[in-house]
Amino acid sequence: MTEATLYERLGGEAAITATVGMFYDRIMSDESLNPFFADLDMDKQINKQIAFMTMAFGGPHDYTGEDMRTAHARLLSRGLAVEHFQAVANHLQATLETLSVPSDLIEEVMRIVGSTKAEVLNE
Ligand code: HEM
């Protein structure tokens, strides 16, 4: 028997879609973060993030976006730093807690998202 992927254990497409929508609502209400997203088409951004997380959590992905280093490189000159990464991660964790996702699954998600830190910050 193969173990269910994290994507499946989180609840699949519907759960990821709901999570990412709430996650960006939180980000866009946070004045320390929303300037970074000011000129983006947020529907497109949300769909890219759904595809990325689907892939990162082992789901049937079709992510064709940029790698994390390239996608965030241009934000460094606009001040992107570790406190922003931490704030984004905290919003994802709070979203999952609000949705009553079990804490062991939240830990798995946060480990995977945390593993992108050096790339996002171009370290
Ligand atoms: C926490 C881990 C993060 C992940 C997994 C992540 C994921 C992504 C993904 C999948 C994209 C789409 C790439 C593409 O356009 O092809 C993206 C773009 C973007 N991310 Fe992140 N991100 C993270 C952290 C951050 C942080 C901390 C910020 C700033 C506060 C940020 C701001 C942006 C912006 C503004 C874009 C659009 C860039 C552009 O189109 O020019 N991200 N991110």
TrEMBL record:
Organism superkingdom: Bacteria
Binding sites annotated in the UniProt record for heme: H72
Keywords recorded for this protein, A-Z: Heme, Iron, Metal-binding, Oxygen transport, Transport
Required co-factors: heme
Cofactor detail note: Binds 1 heme group per subunit.
Sample GO molecular function, one term: metal ion binding
InterPro entries found in the cross-reference section: Globin-like_sf, Globin/Proto, Hemoglobin_trunc, Hemoglobin_trunc_I
Spans through the membrane: none
Assigned protein family: Belongs to the truncated hemoglobin family. Group I subfamily.
Protein name: Group 1 truncated hemoglobin
The species this protein was found in: Enhygromyxa salina
Gene (UniProt): glbN_1
